[in-house]
Amino acid sequence: MEEKRALAAAKDGDLATLERLLEAGALGPGVTDALGAGLVHHATRAGHLACVKFLVQRAQLPGNQRAHNGATPVHDAAATGSLAELCWLVREGGCGLQDRDSSGVSPLHLAARFGHPVLVEWLLREGHAATLETLEGALPLHHAAVSGDLTCLKLLTAAHGRPDSSAVERCSRSRAFPSRPLGKGLRDPLLRIFPGASTPAAPGPAGHSVSVRPAVLEAVSVI
Asked: ANK repeats span which residues (predicted)?
């Protein structure tokens, strides 16, 4: 019962309840949901910075706690567009700028996948590598293409430092995507950035698709 109250308080930003639970000794890293996401995960994804700070600084919970799929709270912040929480977790909460989950997905992949250009820009400015690949070879640029967010695509393309059709080819040839026709979600946004570029040929009779496999989407335990 106490665990459920703690999780609900973290989700709701109920700092008073969290303080009472701390006094009762009911807060700890063992308080998680079925997917292994802890209190800091839930406070982060809900955008409750005061609760995030309380849980890490006063309750002494690990800011970089990992869910069952290896996701840390920065993954939640990146996926939900929570810039203040992301900044604090990286700078003061013990999380790494390029924390990777068990599939190799980083905060930049998720910020791009869910169309958060402000977070993409901040991560790149702080030094997150635009060329970081998942275990299956997907770049943040792939995820931006799937989201269809043109600003994210432009930011990541500029960070690659090669505004030409080679970026299109890298996206199409990643082993993260099976052999099916290249989808509109990838082709159209990229060709808007690279006018005149043609979709490259790829192994298989019809090229590659851009569907992101479920394991990637599960990088944030709420998904």
From this structure: 103-127
Query: Which is nearest to 123 in space by CA: 163, 164, 89, 166?
Result: 89
C-alpha dihedral, 162 to 175 to 145 to 131, nearest 10°: -40
Whether the CA torsion 179, 183, 189, 191 is positive or negative: it is: positive
- Closest to 119 in 3D by CA, of 91, 73, 146, 152: 152
Show the tokens assigned to 14.
């109920």
What is the C-alpha to C-alpha distance for residues 140 and 129, in angstroms, rounded to an integer? Answer: 9
Global confidence as pTM: 0.76
CB contact at 8 A, 147 and 172: no
Give the CATH number of domain 101-223. 1.25.40.20
Amino acid at site 46: A
Superfamily of domain 1-96: Ankyrin repeat-containing domain (1.25.40.20)
Mean pLDDT in order along the chain per 10 residues (223 residues): 95 98 96 97 98 98 97 98 98 97 97 97 97 95 93 94 50 45 40 37 29 34 34
Please say whether the beta carbons of 111 and 149 come within 8 A: no
Neighbours of 95 (CB within 10 A): 26
- Hey, do 1-96 and 101-223 end up sharing a CATH topology, with the first three levels equal? yes
